[in-house]
Amino acid sequence: MSLVHQNWWFTTLLIKQFKYCPPLSKSLKCDVLIVGGGVSGISAAAEFVKQGRNVVLIERNIVGGGSAGRSAGFLTPDSELELHQLVRRYGPKAAREIWDAPLRGIERLVNGIKNFDIQCGLAEQDSLFLGLGKSGKEAVEEEMECRKSVGFTDQQTYDEQSLKTIIGSEGFSAGIRYGGTYGINPLLCLQAKIIGKPLVFSLTNAWAKFYQVDSHRKTEEMRAEF
User: Fold this and answer.
1) Fewer CB atoms inside 10 A, N or C side of the chain?
2) HSE-up of 219 (CA within 13 Å, CB side)?
3) 16: which DSSP letter?
4) Which residue in 165, 154, 29, 27 sits closest to 103, CA to CA?
5) pTM of the model
6) CATH of 21-72+185-214, one of 3.60.60.10, 3.30.40.10, 3.50.50.60, 3.30.870.10
7) pLDDT band at 90; cut points 50, 70, 90
8) Pairing mode, if any, of strands 182-183 and 123-124?
């Protein structure tokens, strides 16, 4: 028996009929050139097309073939810094603004998925902030206080015993559950966006073109003028 090491999201493409993005083999002219077909690149392309700009997006792999398409697909506002760390560093007002920025991005992405019926396994699912040991419990308590201080009201706390029942795992001393977060198949989402109405068909006078580039070719061999 042989085992194939393959990202699970990529196997889901086997049953989908997506259009082929041709290789970039000639010079082009466009209003906006975007390098990278991840969430940021695709979202930027969509916004520029809405503004009537002609867009070229280049990607060395398939669209979504990088870290975005290989990610776990969680749509949450969490970053490298937890909310209580943001409050400690920037204060409650600025921390709320920083936290709200990705929330607005999540809302726009989810609305786009729903409006254009993109089949990417969208599921609303709450997030669970967990603490491990005594210091983890203190972090959860501080996180809870900070959520209240910035005006969040959708959280629920769990003690150690409750967590054993909920997640079936020992060692976690406390936790906070909060909503407004989702899960998707990120690769299917990005692949669907390049052929769907959100980009190419939103304006009749604007277009978005997608090309794959060979990373082994010299950049001097081709160019996009903008």
Assistant:
1) N
2) 4
3) -
4) 154
5) 0.74
6) 3.50.50.60
7) very high
8) antiparallel
